[in-house]
Write a structure and sequence with these properties.
By secondary structure, the chain is an alpha+beta fold. The protein has a single domain, classed as Beta-grasp domain (Ubiquitin-like (UB roll), Roll). Helix content is 18%, strand content 24%. It contains 2 helices and 5 strands, in the order ββααβββ. Strands 2-1-5-3-4 form a 5-stranded mixed beta sheet, covered by helices on one side. The longest helix has 11 residues. The termini are far apart. 18% of the residues are buried.
Length: 91
Amino acid sequence: MSQTVIIRKTLRRLTNGVETIEVQGKTVNDIFDQLEERFPGIRKKLCERNGDLHRFINVYVDGEDIRYLESLQTNVKERSKVSIGPGIAGG
């Protein structure tokens, strides 16, 4: 089961400049585990100490915001695209 993770430009410092990463997982949490293995320390930049997603990080699976799904337990399908980027505040 292979998925593509797209890291938005402002977070690529966490992946040594890598934009797309091929991973295999059943949930977003599985994908985060693989990202942590490849890029140690990335999880603490994406998640709170309690494991929840930082409120200023957005994650989309096939265009759907995981906050409105099952957060890090959101299932991912074969060939899903997972996009990770910073939240943008405005007003």
